[in-house]
């Protein structure tokens, strides 16, 4: 049986040229990662992101991060803030566990580059940085209160009513979810009415330029986060796939809204875990009736307009926690499990890195059925990896391309002290 795969070298930035050509005119480029704590995944995504911005005119990137925190970064790289704080200081806003996902030196370098790149651009041409995630219930409520009180009438009453509904739960989403999961008294109506009121208020404001539109978008997005976060936390307590689907559907809704904000010809770069960007229909997620951004984006925009790049490693080190909320540490990533996708690539490449394209992999006998594909979350126990951490995957269909790094290193986390309000444990889906 044929045991080798068609591969392309991956040693320097110029080796990304074939990938740029394959991306072509795609409107949405999804860049994955097999863990949230591997340096090479961040640095190579950065290299590709720069090329997509410079050579293909992509207008913004959106990441697996909370909306309020990422919008502060967006403001900083667009010079909306009065002081030129160093990027490491700007990223201290990511102080909720897992802090290292966006609070790291690899992202510092990217943020500094984005800020410098934007300096020469008009307001409506500057590159944006946004968050897709749904966890920031309390932070988004607080942002809404600040906005409506500044604007005056309109949504003030609805915003205060929603905030008061959540106050008894001490800014703890798990306490809220446990209290309302199986009773009729919850805050769903309050946050839904707040969103309606805010949309009415925003609709009546003068249009303004892109920056003014972005500020109105920010207010409405925080209200949308509150609505979907309330749904997410209730669903999470009940178990099953529902909470995962609420989360990824929110991410997709946010992506669609961002593309609409930036215009009909806008292009987006997405940074998320492989588990979000690789089409769920070609993994065992489908058996659990789970959807993800990769699937939803292909369905919404067509496969030719969405290009997904998966990432993987054979062995090395990674930053993760041994349990939810634990102190992050550098852990050893053992050799990949035999017969896994990563193990097969290691055997063929003998220590080299490689770029692979799905159109060249289709029809390969070893990939005719699903193979195990490594996935490391923010919670990781290397000693148990042989019994889990591998997602059965139809590689040529889940992604459009794949970037393999044989030996990888842990990313370099900033010394950010985690906030005490850690979101609820998402295990086993801590991606």
UniProtKB/TrEMBL annotation:
<dbReference type="InterPro" id="IPR014622">
    <property type="entry name" value="UCP036794_erythomycin"/>
</dbReference>
<dbReference type="GO" id="GO:0046677">
    <property type="term" value="P:response to antibiotic"/>
</dbReference>
<dbReference type="InterPro" id="IPR007815">
    <property type="entry name" value="Emycin_Estase"/>
</dbReference>
<dbReference type="InterPro" id="IPR052036">
    <property type="entry name" value="Hydrolase/PRTase-associated"/>
</dbReference>
<protein>
    <submittedName>
        <fullName>Erythromycin esterase homolog</fullName>
    </submittedName>
</protein>
<dbReference type="Pfam" id="PF05139">
    <property type="entry name" value="Erythro_esteras"/>
</dbReference>
């Amino acid at each position: 049986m044929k045991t080798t795969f068609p591969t392309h070298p991956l040693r320097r930035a110029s080796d990304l040229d074939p990938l740029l050509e394959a991306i072509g005119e795609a409107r949405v480029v999804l860049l994955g990662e097999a863990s949230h704590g591997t340096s090479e995944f961040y640095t190579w995504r950065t290299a590709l992101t720069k090329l997509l911005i410079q050579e293909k005119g992509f207008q913004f990137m959106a990441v697996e991060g909370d909306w309020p925190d990422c919008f502060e970064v967006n403001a900083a790289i667009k010079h909306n803030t009065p002081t030129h704080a160093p990027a490491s200081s700007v990223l201290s806003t990511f102080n909720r566990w897992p802090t290292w996902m966006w609070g790291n030196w690899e992202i510092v370098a990217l943020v500094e580059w984005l800020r410098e790149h934007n300096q020469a651009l008009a307001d409506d041409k500057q590159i944006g940085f946004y968050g897709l995630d749904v966890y920031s219930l309390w932070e988004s409520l607080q942002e809404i209160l600040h906005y409506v009180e500044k604007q005056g009438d309109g949504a003030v009453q609805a915003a205060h009513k929603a905030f008061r509904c959540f106050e008894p739960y001490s800014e703890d989403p798990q306490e809220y979810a446990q209290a309302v999961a199986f009773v009729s008294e919850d805050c769903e109506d309050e946050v839904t009415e707040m969103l309606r009121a805010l949309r009415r208020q925003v609709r009546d404001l003068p249009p303004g330029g892109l920056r003014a539109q972005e500020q109105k978008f920010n207010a409405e997005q925080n209200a949308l986060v509150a609505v979907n976060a309330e749904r997410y936390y209730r669903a999470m307590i009940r178990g099953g796939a529902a909470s995962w689907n609420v989360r990824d559907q929110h991410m997709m809704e946010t992506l669609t809204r961002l593309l609409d904000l930036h215009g009909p010809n806008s292009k987006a770069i997405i940074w998320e875990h492989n588990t979000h960007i690789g089409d769920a229909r070609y993994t065992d997620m489908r058996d659990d009736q789970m959807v993800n951004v990769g699937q939803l984006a292909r369905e919404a925009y067509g496969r030719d307009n969405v290009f997904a790049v998966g990432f993987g490693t054979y062995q090395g080190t990674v930053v993760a926690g041994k349990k939810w909320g634990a102190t992050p540490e550098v852990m050893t990533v053992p050799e990949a499990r035999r017969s896994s996708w990563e193990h097969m690539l290691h055997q063929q490449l003998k220590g080299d890195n490689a770029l692979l394209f799905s159109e060249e992999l289709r029809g390969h006998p070893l990939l005719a059925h699903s193979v195990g594909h490594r996935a490391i979350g923010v919670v990781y126990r290397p000693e148990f990896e042989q019994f889990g951490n591998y997602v059965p995957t139809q590689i040529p269909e889940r992604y459009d391309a794949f970037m393999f790094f044989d030996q990888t290193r842990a990313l370099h986390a900033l010394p950010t002290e985690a906030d005490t309000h850690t979101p609820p444990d998402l295990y086993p889906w801590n991606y």
